[in-house]
Structure formats: C-alpha cells, structure tokens
Amino acid sequence: MSAQRKAPHVPVLIEEVVAAMAIQHGDTVVDGTFGAGGYTRALLAAGAGRVIGFDRDPDAIAAAPTLVPDADSIPEHLTASADELRAALRPAPPRTIATFVAPSAPRVAGLMTTPPITIRPEDRLATAWRIMRARRIRHLPVVDGGGRLVGLISHRDLLAASSSSIIASSEDDRVQLLTWARVGDVMETHLSVAHPDENAAEAGERLIRHKIGCLPVVEGDAQLVGVVTEEDFLRWATAEMARAS
Predict the structure, then answer these.
(1) Relative to the CA of 245, which of 11, 133, 193, 206 has its CA 20 to 30 Å away?
(2) What residue segments make up the domains of the chain, in order of their start?
(3) Position 140 pLDDT exceeds 50
(4) CA of 245: how far to CAs of 100, 166, 238, in Å?
C-alpha cells in the first residue's frame, strides 16, 4: 500500500487575515509564525514583495529553503528592515517655521511732509483760501517771523468765517468777503503737536482721539519742521500693504 500524500497545511482563517492586512503591492511583511509556510505563500500571492518569516521549529527552518527561494538572504533582509525601522523612528530634524516680521514702527519724521507750507498771522484769510486751493491742502500752520508755530488754520475755519452761499454765490464773492479778516483772527491756537522722533503710532492715536486731520511737527522752541496728516498715514499704510501682497 502506497503512503498517502500529506496535504499542505492551510492556516485557520488565512483568507480573512490576509484580507484584513490589506497588502499593498511590494510591501514587506513579517510572518511571526512561519511554520509550514502557509501564511507566507498567501502573503506573497496577495502581492507582498517580501515576507520575513520567524520560527523556532527545526523542521520549519529546514523546510524554509524549499518554500522560500531566497531563505539564505533572510538575515540580510532582517538587517535592512531593522535599519529602515530605526530610520523611521529617528526624530525628525527641527522644522524651520517661517515667521512674520512686522514692519519696523515708523517715526513721525518718516511720514511728515517737509518743508511745510505756512502762512503768517497778519495774512488775509483770502490768501489762506488761495493757497489751500492751489496746493490742494486743508491745513495751514501759522508761524511768526522766526518760524515758530503760533496757530493753525483749516479749510473748515475758512468756510465758517465766510458768508453762506446765499450771500456769496460765487467763488470770487467768497474770496472777496475773506479779504476783510486776518488769519490771526480765526486761527486755532490750542494745538496738539507731534515731534520728529515720536513713534508715528502715538501721533496717529492722537489724530483719532481728538478727531483732527493734522498735527504740526515741532522741535525745540516750537520751531515748525513739518506737518503730518491723515493722508500721510494712509499713504504709509497703503505702501506697506502693497509690499506685503
């Protein structure tokens, strides 16, 4: 009677286990229960590129070369896999995080208009009106003969000093009426001022707090050196936004 041929060992639930592992083509898989090689064959058939098997059974070790053609290279593969694992677990080098560098805080001197356009207290309001119209400005610092600030006159002051449009129906009529008064008669003398080396943000906060559109810039004994306005702040902010975009 001939000896019966022994059927190959089929591990329990092998199909379910291999399906659950979701093997990707070329994966390296470690089989910790090599045994008769059932899982190893199934894993290779499922697309694994390399299966590394472990077993203490002498029979399994002796049979490994017939089941796995490259069994002799397993130690080499184990070493390579260990190296890959160590590399994967090695702490990543510190990442360089980009930081936003805010623009340096400007000083009033960097925003102000200089030299300022000025007028004298003894000048007529009509002169102030013509200067504002020609230069397209709304504020005129008033200085004495030594260039010291003594007041400020605004476009609003001129409108308040002139008659209503019912009486002065034309531009020439309004200018004619302004020839009767002097700048010193209507100028504002209680002023908020700025200094050239002052932080521009602080000057801007004063403009907002006092609801004004202009700060004369002085140094020393009220010597006028410039003017900073809402437009100057807007121009600076627009330039910074354009640079950042």
Answers:
(1) 206
(2) 14-87, 108-244
(3) yes
(4) 13, 50, 11
Residues in the chain: 245
Give the H/E segment covering residue 154: strand 149-154
HSE-CB for 127 with a 13 A CA cutoff: 15
Which amino acid is located at 68 in the chain?
A: V
- 63 burial class (0-12, 13-18, 19+ CB within 10 angstroms)? middle
Q: What is the pTM of this model?
A: 0.55
Strands 28-31 and 50-53: parallel
Token couple for 149:
């600030």
CB-CB neighbours of 184 under 10 Å: 16
Show the tokens assigned to 137.
Answer: 């400005």
**Fold designation for 108-244:** CBS-domain (3.10.580)
Chain-wide mean pLDDT for the chain? 79
